[in-house]
Amino acid sequence: MMTLAGCDRPATDRDAPISVALEDADPDIAGGISDLIAAVRAAPQSGELRGRLAMAYEMNGFPEAALTTYAQAAALDPEEFAWPYFRALLLGRSGDLPAALTSVEQAITIDQDYVPAWLWQGKWSMDTGDEGAAEIAYRRAQDLGAGSPAIAGLAQIRLRQGRPSQAVALLESVSPERSHPQLHRMLGEAYRSLGRDEDARIAFARGKLASPLEWFDPRQFRKTEYVWGFKNQMAHAGDLLLAGMTKEALAILDVWEDRYPDDPALLTNLGRAYLNLDDLDRAYEILLRGVSVHSSAHSVGYHFHFHLGRLYVRRRDDEKALFHLDKAAELNPAQPYPHEERGKILLRQGRTDDGIEALDVAVQKGIPNVENLLNAAGIAEAARGRWPDAIERFRQATAANPAFTEAYLHLARSLGQTRRFDEAREALDWAARLGTHPGGVASARRILAGGESSEDDDPLPGGA
Hints:
The chain is an all-alpha fold. It folds into 4 domains: about 15-205, Alpha Horseshoe (Serine Threonine Protein Phosphatase 5, Tetratricopeptide repeat), CATH 1.25.40.10; about 230-330, Serine Threonine Protein Phosphatase 5, Tetratricopeptide repeat; about 335-370, no CATH class; about 375-464, Serine Threonine Protein Phosphatase 5, Tetratricopeptide repeat (Alpha Horseshoe), CATH 1.25.40. The protein is built from 24 helices and no strands. The protein starts with about 25 loop residues before the first helix and ends in an 11-residue tail after the last helix.
């Protein structure tokens, strides 16, 4: 029989806190875990303290100890949702889906209204082949307002069942502009199964950078206060910066600056954070310190020079920006981003050949969203009246992303400038099919019609 938290009973061996080897651990981690173990030993019936120890183990690299300790916390405090839920997530990441399902069901019994728990149950049920259980979980999540993640799960079930029309109906209910790329990819699969090849092409283009579909899980934030140790906290701060949580990242970074003032990870994160906040003076101070201390470390120095280049772009000091971007490219030749930034500056300065060359280097080095650079190069060629070169660039951009409406509009106008009206209309028809810029399509059609009906050979107004 499970014992309720807070009741009086003697501790047993089963209740003893799990210990791990801490000799080689960061002193902050070792001290924090040791303090929690001592607290647990002093109050062995406390599910809350046991849960805190489990979170500390999980967030500092001791997953096996965390699993056992979460189970102990759940036994001591059977009304607390967090302990079986956090254990389920750990089990899911380790690949033990049957155990993860058992644990998340325990959590759902405690709180039947927490959407992420139902979504995880749906995903893991799907992954273990139990489509019936997955359907129930996703329907419950949908009823609770889960939105896209629940729709994606239900659509995946329909695709597995060979019912693509029903999958299309589900996926088309989500606005294309707000839809996750993964939903576009699923929609492309459904269209292709139905023989709707052009629609599939658009959907796959919109989902070409698809990452795993994730959902907001606020209860997991409870664990972040147990991220201890300098390296762990630098990694956590970097994740927060990527997520746009700059102030939260700074709250972590400021604690460590006095202890590790010259650490490259700390300085890089601080520089990025102050750039995000548009505090250019403070960002400059941090990044310049990084350059002076780590000038000989290529992999580290790259970041400082690159971000200094970005800083000088904001200060509208192109020459200093180019200096630091050139230095960043020298220190890390594999990176495309300095070349992208250089290209933008050079184009803005009217140095079109050099700017396009820099953009081409960024493309060759594998920059994501390559269509944006190809489109920018096309606009630069069109601005100086090199219509065949502009057309080629815009065609490359639309080939890289068949859902890039603006590139089709530029392509149509450039084709119109060379009197290739049939091809221009085809480009506009595709742009209209995408449905994202109806006003732009209508304007381009008017310009095209005016040029086509004219008797002379003057260039059309309103070029790309």
